[in-house]
Design brief:
This protein is an alpha/beta fold and 332 residues long. The protein has 13 helices and 14 strands.
């Protein structure tokens, strides 16, 4: 196994604030690592250390086989970095921005122009190439920023929250662009606070909270840590909740739990779809009317919640006031 990124015991404090508490990270060449965590968990600090923009207080790290402290120039020659906020010049056109980056990478004028055209085409920016980027949408800016970070043909790419603030459609666009890069063999370290983003793009996930790694593994490994499938049954009448729960217990893999207010029964199960059929039949035989029944697989939201006891910041915002499955789970 060849490691494109290896970090051991990275720690960093800003004065009194401990941003990183001694974290280990390994990213195999050609794979995507999702560094997942809420605001302030230490994602950007990690990226800045690995990209040689910031020195750790302790620990060590290498990128592309080069030490970030003793070989920073070599590290910089193999990496690309896209920040949380697009680092492009407002007053230039998309094409001019890319040509400028090319020149900064010591490409000849001819080669810089050629590379700019190539990248504009690839990121679906050809039509807007000669317009000032002041008029670009958020999604276009991110694509331009990503294009700029690819000028030097990096082997290792750092994407710091590449889709934060984008609308769902632009987010999908970024995802497919990133998937293309990965399919060409680029190693990617991607930070995100979006669980679906890590789920969609990352081969392996490292979960950060308060500067500490609280979990790592594939998305499936993380999900199985919080338990298997559950069936959620809502009965029509609150008078039936307790009896229904007793009747269906035999199909569960663990004790059912009840939420009286919502007339809901949650039953952990091993074989989800078979259990649904059995439950429906059993309740029907006993004349208990079902308002709703659904199979719930654990999501990364559940993982984060169970590991930290709190949802990601993003989710707290979007689910407030407490409503829907996450809020309900919080009260149970
Ligand atoms: N330049 C800085 N000065 C002081 N504190 C900082 C600075 N940069 C980050 N921090 C703090 O360090 C912690 C980690 O921040 P950061 O790495 O930016 O997290 P994330 O990218 O996950 O939001 C936070 O508590 C943040 O407030
Ligand atoms: Mg950040």
């Amino acid at each position: 196994m060849t490691l494109a990124i290896k970090a051991s015991g990275l720690a960093k404090a800003y004065g009194e604030v401990v941003a990183l508490n001694g974290i280990d990270i390994e990213v195999e060449q050609g794979t995507v690592l999702g560094l997942l965590g809420p605001n302030g968990s230490g994602k950007t600090t990690t990226v800045r250390i690995l990209a040689t923009l910031l020195q750790a207080d302790s620990g060590s790290a290498s990128v592309g086989g080069f030490d970030v402290v003793t070989q920073p120039d070599e590290v910089r020659s193999v990496i690309g970095l896209t920040g949380q906020y697009a680092a492009v010049d407002e007053y230039l056109t998309g094409r001019e921005n890319l040509e400028l980056f090319g020149r900064l990478f010591h490409l000849s004028k001819f080669d810089a122009a050629k590379r700019a055209t190539e990248l504009l085409d690839r990121f679906d920016l050809s039509d807007a190439a000669d317009r000032g980027i002041k008029g670009y949408s958020g999604g276009m800016r991110r694509r331009l920023d990503l294009a700029a970070s690819l000028i030097g043909r990096p082997n290792v790419l750092f994407l710091d929250e590449p889709t934060t603030g984008l609308d769902p459609r632009s987010r999908q666009g970024m995802w497919s662009v990133i998937e293309n890069l990965v399919s060409e063999g680029t190693t990617v370290l991607l930070t995100t606070q979006y669980l679906e983003e890590a789920d969609q793009l990352a081969d392996r996930i490292v979960v950060l909270d308060h500067g500490t790694v609280i979990a790592k593994g594939t998305s499936n490994e993380l999900k199985s840590q919080v338990g298997g499938d559950r069936i959620e049954i809502v009965v029509e009448s609150s008078a039936d909740v307790a009896r229904a729960s007793e009747l269906i217990q035999e199909f569960g893999s663990a004790a059912a739990s009840i939420e009286d207010v919502t007339k809901t029964i949650l039953l952990p199960v091993a074989g989800g779809s078979t259990a649904i059929v059995n439950i429906v039949r059993k309740l029907d035989e006993n004349k208990i009317a079902i308002a709703d029944i659904a199979l719930r697989r654990p999501t990364l939201d559940d993982v984060f919640l169970s590991l930290t006891g709190h949802a990601t910041e993003d989710n707290e915002e979007s689910s407030a006031p407490a409503k829907g499955r996450r809020g309900r789970k919080g009260r149970s």
